[in-house]
Amino acid sequence: MATPNALPRISLSQQIKDQLLERIMQGELSPGARLIELKIAAEFSTSQAPVREALRELEAMGVIETLPNKGARVRTITNDELCQLYDVRAQLEAYATQLTTENGVPLKSKLKEIVRLMKKAAREEDSTAFAGHNSDFHRVIVKSSGNTVLLDLWENLNVQARTMTNVTRSRRNLMELADSHQPIIDAIASGNSKLANSLAKEHVLSNRPKSTI
């Protein structure tokens, strides 16, 4: 009989990744904590293959690192690293939002639905789901810019994981954070690309953590 932690085989690596990511973001797995494939595989009653894939995805997201002869461990993500990322993200998203507005892409309904999901996650105090929906909101806008280079650069920022880190540390009010996306939706719908650019940039920078420098 499977253990209580056993997972269905569909998207097994994805489910393991999500559970490990949530533990990291909630502090159950602290910076420096080792992630041992055999131990994780035993916990979830599976082979090492999906665990290995989950760890590869977490490393690509920048939340764990693999060291020679030491294996995988949780990375320390500093506030200074987050600050630099938010500064770059603000510029990318401002430009992407401007392009999307100029393209006249009809996104109002889609973006409002994502905000609804954000608020649902906020009510349930599910920061993991909230970060996922938040990332989806901004990805939709960046993708709608039509600039594939811009999208690739944005994807490399690993916005979802960094949002989870920032939300967990800052203890932001998730409902207020969800509401803060509405002006961007309105600006895009209005066709005012200059305003959309400004609001998108302001939105990211207003959530930028404080640097320790």
Task: Briefly summarize what is shown.
By secondary structure, the protein is mainly alpha-helical. It has eleven helices and three strands; from the N terminus they run αβααββαααααααα. It has a three-stranded antiparallel β-sheet.
Key phrases:
213 residues; 2 domains; 5% strand; Four Helix Bundle (Hemerythrin (Met), subunit A); 3-stranded antiparallel beta sheet; mainly alpha; elongated; single chain; Arc Repressor Mutant, subunit A; 67% helix
Q: How many strand units?
A: 3
Task: Supply the helix-strand structural class.
Answer: mainly alpha
> What's the level 1 CATH class of the largest domain?
Mainly Alpha
Main-sheet strand order equals 1-3-2
Report the span from N to C terminus: 53 Å
CATH architecture of the largest domain: Up-down Bundle
Mean pLDDT: 87
What fraction, in percent, of the residue positions are helical? 55-70%
The tally of helices reads 11
Name given to the CATH homologous superfamily of the largest domain: GntR ligand-binding domain-like
